[in-house]
Amino acid sequence: ARSADGTEVECWAVPPAGAVAGRRYPTLPNVHGGPFTQYGNKFTDDFQLQASAGFGVLYCNPRGSSGYSEQWGRAIRWPECEHDPGSGWGEVDYQDVMACADAACERFGWVDPDRLGILGGSYGGYMTSWTIGHTDRFQAACSERACNNLLTMEYTADIAGFLRSYVGAGHLDNRAAYARQSPVSYVQDMTTPVLIIHSEDDLRCPISQAEELFVALRVAEQPGPGSGDRGNGRVAGQVNGRSDPGRPLDPVITRRDADRQHLLQAGLAVAGLSVDSAERHVTADHDQAAAAGD
Questions:
Q1: Cβ–Cβ < 8 Å for 199, 240
Q2: Quick one: 247 exposed, middle or buried, by C-beta within 10 A (0-12, 13-18, 19+)?
Q3: 160: pLDDT confidence band, cut at 50, 70 and 90?
């Protein structure tokens, strides 16, 4: 895909299992963690589960990923960095992810541009949260074990100080630089339904990262000075199988390895993106044929 500034980004696409020519399907761009990690042309269980559930799958290696040049990996260092300054998280990497979605909509007839979701974990969760604060392009989002407030993460993560190499300054010295690139700073602009998933014992991205985004979204939904009536039930929270009680969106979902596919389908349906019955029927027929060796 060609990004906004002309940079070529390596991308992959997986059609839904049993996809029928001429039919469009809900499609999910996935964003990897890291950010200095990479996707590739290899088996990834999440993508197979998503495709078998009837979703198209997109993924790419935006700037900041590993596996390319040193310049590519350092492209998302903050502009405050004395050496090798870049755009900061959420800038050129965000443009690259959007370019992947744009290119897929143009090239593949099975992608439904009106039914796009976005999801990812850790830095991928960061990018998911950041994206819905900067565009309403996606119909639903799943932000998993995300970094939502980079400033407070530096106080609580088991690798506190890690972000200093990206920002170029410590969080005690330049709080504004951390807040500027934090998704939670843009919560007033988030209108996309989002499912927030986090584990209580996550030490790398502590659960407080999910709680900050969840609470901020709930507060933003309440009528009040300057906020308008935003009480549209657009956020659902789930922590190790326990959802937030008494809320408009209250999915009772237990996350186990054996039912990740059902979590994905149910969670995105709660957030606003689902596969219709005809598409599920096609996928089921495909699975039955495969099981029979057809």
A1: yes
A2: middle
A3: confident
State yes or no: pLDDT of 194 exceeds 80.
yes
**What is the average pLDDT across 212-227?**
75
For 177-200, the DSSP string reads HHHHT-GGGGGGG--S-EEEEE-T
| Residue 75 near residue 85 (C-beta atoms within 8 A) | no
CA distances in angstroms from 160 to 44, 151, 157, 292, listed in the order given: 29, 10, 5, 52
Tens of pLDDT, residues 79-130: 999 999 999 999 999 999 999 999 999 999 999 999 999 999 999 999 999 9
pTM listed for this prediction:
0.83
Whole-angstrom Cα distance, residue 212 to residue 200? 14
